[in-house]
Amino acid sequence: MSNAAPVRFLDRATPPHISTLILMAGMSALVMNIFVPSLNAMADWFQADYGLVQLSVSGYLLMNAILQIFIGPMSDKMGRRPIILWGTAIFLLATLGCLLATDIYVFLMFRMAQATIVVAMVLSRAVVRDLYPPDEAASRIGYVTMGMSVVPMLAPVAGGALAEAFGWQSNFWVMFLFGAALLWLCWQDLGETAAKSGLTLGQQFREYPELLTSPRFWGYALACAFSSGAFFSYVGGASFVGSEVFNLSPTVLGLYFGAPAVGYFLGNWVSGTYSARVGINRMILWGGFIILVGMALSMMIFALDMGSALTFFGFMTFVGFGNGMTIPNATAGALSVRPHLAGTASGLAGAIMLLGGAAMSSLAGALLAPETGAWPLLWLMLLSAVTSIMAILLVIRREKRLAGLDLA
Predict the structure, then answer these.
(1) pTM for the whole thing?
(2) pLDDT-above-90 percentage for the chain
(3) From CA 75, how far away is CA 129, in angstroms rounded?
(4) Which CATH number is 12-198 given?
(5) Residue 344: enclosing H or E segment and its boundaries?
(6) Distance between CA 250 and CA 242 in Å, rounded?
(7) CATH topology of domain 207-402
(8) Which of 243, 267, 295, 319 would you call most buried, defined as having the most Cβ atoms within 10 angstroms of its Cβ?
(9) Chain centre to alpha carbon of residue 239
(10) Which tens digits make up the pLDDT trace of 22-40?
């Protein structure tokens, strides 16, 4: 749909309001981040090993990736609205289960079920692509992710304060309240934006090869995965670098740790403002180069023996900035390769990004040691940026070959 109807808030006969899309996109990040400062307290409360309680983070990420593979085809078959409403309702029930659990294994079971909230994030992007052409969709996705980018900055701080004052359960009550607000908002404001495919669910899943055999889909998906892989590498290694290399206290490390989120906010603003004019491919390419330049400058500073916590974390704003330009545009590109499979493409691209990012995060943690300093992490992030640039260059080359042809 190239010309969407005027937006009227809480009128599902018109396109959803930007605030609805922002809350949809931000819920998954809130559910992921807000309770992390409470993990030690939760281990004490459940009388369980910390490593077991930590599965509430890694297991949740894995379940997110698995669900994204199924969410897209289901939404293309049954529509965006029912999948979002049912997924959010299941999330609310799972959250109550987490609150009532007195056994760690029961808690983890309900925690995994909470991952159904990922439907809101995945399908918020598909909804945008349903309503707008590729370049404008990238701008809209940029604004949505710009609005939600503050969640990773604020949620852990708020969650830690709430847990200290009222116990770890308060974080899950916040999740429940926001989830209930999201369910009501989607019911009132979000109409159906996609034409149902008319295929059976089995036939819908058999549409995956149409995406998996598209070089452009893979180019966009890998550009997104490796660009975000630089950030996931940071998540996996920055805490080690901050504490072991620079001897930062947890409080100071927490302040530094949010540097990429600042850049991400700005990068999403650039995407929202310029993607429709500049084009998604150039925005992705520039985003990759920004990450590359940031990492190259940081490595040069370290090579000159001038590296410090300020320079290390300061240059990480380049990573956030580059991702803010790359992710919305690469997502819009992946969804545009086969517009009739936008939901499927959103889920598959998201799963590729999340699984790749998890692997990069684990690799960063495995490579770092006291004697290596920050070098393995910097190299890994640099190589991620290079690979992201190579992926989008292949897309650009492919599109030049197909100029004037209705092929992908």
Answers:
(1) 0.73
(2) 36
(3) 13
(4) 1.20.1250.20
(5) helix 342-367
(6) 9
(7) Growth Hormone; Chain: A; (1.20.1250)
(8) 267
(9) 20
(10) 888 888 888 887 887 677 7
